Amino acid sequence: MLQTSNYSLVLSLQFLLLSYDLFVNSFSELLQKTPVIQLVLFMCVQ
C-alpha cells in the first residue's frame, strides 16, 4: 500500500517530467530550422 509521502513523491516526479517534456518540445518547435543547435541542446541535457 502506498504511503502518503510516497504518493506525493511520485506525483511531484510526474509533474517534473511533464514540465521537462513540455519545455523540450517547445524548444524543438522553435529550433527546427537549426538542427545543429538542437543537437547541442540534446547533448547538454544528456
UniProtKB/TrEMBL annotation:
* Compartments where found: Cell projection, Cilium; Vacuole membrane
Q: What is its main location?
A: other
Of the GO CC terms on this record, one is: vacuolar membrane
Database matches in InterPro entries = TM_138
Keywords tagged on the record: Cell projection, Cilium, Cilium biogenesis/degradation, Glycoprotein, Membrane, Transmembrane, Transmembrane helix, Vacuole
- Name the domain of life: Eukaryota
- Choose any GO biological process term that the UniProt entry carries and state it: cell projection organization
Q: How does it sit in the membrane?
A: Multi-pass membrane protein
UniProt record similarity statement: Belongs to the TMEM138 family.
Q: Please explain the role this protein plays, according to its UniProt record.
A: Required for ciliogenesis.
**Protein name (Swiss-Prot/TrEMBL):** Transmembrane protein 138
Native organism is Homo sapiens
